[in-house]
Amino acid sequence: MVLHSAKRRPGGVLVRRLAAVESAPDRGVISLYLDLSTPEQAVPRDRHAQIESLGDRARQWYTDAEQHRRFGDQPAVRQDLESVIEFLEDQFPPRGARGVAVFRCSDPDVFEVVRLASPPPSSVAVDRHPCLLPLLEAGGWLPSTYVLAVSGETAELLVARGLGLDEVARVESDITAHDIEGGQESRHQRHVEEERRAHVRRAAGLLDEAARQHPVEQVVLVATPKLVRPLEEAVDPQHADAVVGVVEAELLHRPAAELAPEVEDALARRVDELDRQLLAELEQRMGREEGARTGVDPVLAALSEQRVEHLLLAPGLDLQGAACPACGWMAGVTGTCPVDGTGLEPVADLGELMVRRAVEQSAGIRVLSDSRIVDARAAALLRYERQEP
User: Fold this and answer.
1) What's the CATH code of the domain at 54?
2) What is the CA radius of gyration of the chain?
3) HSE-CB for 37 with a 13 A CA cutoff
4) What is the span of the domain harbouring residue 44?
5) Is the pLDDT of residue 43 over 80?
6) pTM of the model
7) In what helix (H) or strand (E) does residue 345 lie, and over which residues does it extend?
8) What residues contact residue 277 under an 8 Å CB cut-off, 6+ apart?
């Protein structure tokens, strides 16, 4: 079975970018998750009360036990926190999102707002690294997704930023939507067919132009029913692997920028399909007793040896463990590093460290509620088996 790389899985670009963030020693990365699915969240006053509560919690967040200093006592962190609260209270447009994540740090400069596919438990954390497990669990798939929306009259290329879709480029058709999408009654049917093909080719060309300027790693195609197949055929083969979803939608009286929910659902269907492939492959490899591991300790060893192709974690993972300060070896308990004999240091949130290590070795990462993953807490598909001497 051919498994999609982490780079082609929806959301992989965002996770890689955030996993590389590490704050300066006197700073911290604020990771705030907000559930927008409840009726109360539709009332600004109630939403503001929850945001203030999360802010108070962040102000009391402590650094590691040795220093035991509040992040909120550090002026730069306090300023970052206030900027997040101000944004959420005064500038934040929910736009129908089910949940949102905000990541903020001033050194390095990071201010990332992420629309989530499912509502997360409202929470806040302050640490040297972003808190990514809730993002993986709630599905932050939309950011950096390109959307090519084609109707009879227009073609728009949009990119997902923050909570919505922003237009990048557009082209207009030379004839009306009625002609392009009409039937045999058209008096100029041959001309209409030629224009339909030309219009779709111009639409696909928008994607080519964007790819010459920036990497296009995931695309959702949206078109009216009669234009879906022509659009799929017109997309350059070099972009075929980047197409992660196709949506049929009537666009004549609807702005393409309002398509975020449909695009999000298309990405979710793609992720579900890939998850089924991963679980089937895990079961097959475990049956052969090679190429996979289940259980926290075996997975930690495989991650430490950089042999993981896909890391699969249970929801709500809460693990403590240890890591070697010299080589990075990870273990479930403190002790001595088996590689260099260095004493292992405690790690308060081992799950987050596992995510970062998986990203470093270009592994895919999924949080799955499948019973096999929940029971084991962690599983991994391996790139290769270690040869015993």
Assistant:
1) 3.30.960.10
2) 24
3) 13
4) 12-138
5) no
6) 0.87
7) strand 345-347
8) 1, 3, 4
